[in-house]
Amino acid sequence: MDTLKLAALDRDDLAVVSAHLQDAVLKVADMAWLPREKRFAFVANRFDWESAASGANRRRRTGVRFDRVKRAQFSRLRPDDKEAVLNLLAVTFEETDPPSGFVTLVFSGGAAVRLELECLECEMRDLGPVWETASQPRHTD
């Protein structure tokens, strides 16, 4: 598969982005909250679920950015713990006063990042390297 580039402007769009980012792995150092630019961005090693469907387990370096961010809050993770490894489980959007709302990045272990947005503007883009991985993520119910 070629590199993926997705935009999300509503909850349904973000659900597609979230599905592609499920089980992405990143370090706290790979996240940046830029209040002056009203932007939150991160780079992660996402598991390529589309390739897994055809029997190939791969990860891809992927960048994600949210624009028009008014505030970022961190729960159960320390922004200064740069080497902490996070496993992204889901990205959700809760609309409060349309078009504004909150995006939550939900990580394993109960960690989360909550972004207060003027409106939802997100872009996900594969950046480069693709590599084989020995196994695919598994979830217990």
UniProtKB/TrEMBL annotation:
One Pfam family this sequence matches: DUF2948
The protein, known as: DUF2948 family protein
